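Question thread 4412

I'm putting together a teaching handout and wanted feedback from people who do this every day. The idea is simple: show students a protein as raw sequence, then show them the structure tokens that encode its fold, then repeat with a second protein so they can compare. Below is the first pair exactly as I plan to print it.
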Amino acid sequence: MSEQVHNRLAMVRAERKVSRQALAEAVGVHYQTIGYIERGQYNPSLDLALKIGKFFGLPVEAVFSLEPFRPLTDEVYGRNAQ
């Protein structure tokens, strides 16, 4: 069994005002696949993760991680610095 891949995909999509359908069409998958990824029910392939990062103009590690992401407020305001 593979390790869970954590993601910020829903947050990035919302920030950029991109629908699941639009993202799915841009990266060549079904829109439900985007939902599965966002809910942690499906780990994207490396190819798909790279396509998603490229679509948003972000490094893949800004969207996906093997470790849980710290809450965004912690990163912005420096709370609970590790």
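The second pair follows. I'd like the answer to focus on this one:
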Amino acid sequence: MAKKSKKQQSGGTPATVALAAAGATYTVHAYDHDPAHPSYGEEAAEAMGVSPERVFKTLVADVDGALTVAVVPVAGQLDLKALAAAVGGKRAAMADPALAERTTGYVRGGISPLGQRKRLPTVLDASASGHATICVSAGRRGLEVELTPDALAELTEAVLAPIGRA
């Protein structure tokens, strides 16, 4: 069994541990998750009182056989063709949820683009750059992290591209 760092033992997640290790500036927002809510992202926006355009969901897609992370606003949807194009691929489809969970180390609704078990190519929707800060999952349902889009892009080595649609 793997040892957990003090931060993980005290409630940290791999995402928050990665942020702290990188010396990033961020804010953690915790809220009571309602399992009956129809949308994890919309629930986060409502609970934090943040515009859904500033709360981004982390989706895992299969682009030409390779898992790829897409980070898009919860207010919209992922454009799979645009995602494929952003990474030089031809076809994209949503990844099998169980495979996404195993590969990232997170559960659906709590997948963070940060601190994943296996680093995957990441694309951040270009709309993120229009905000001073954005919120993404901190690695657990009911836990979000707020940081600058530049910090997220740097820490995940993300490509910025218009992959979201209203």
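Top answer:
Good format. For the second protein you could add a caption like this: The mean pLDDT is 91. The CA atoms of residues 39 and 66 lie 26 Å apart.
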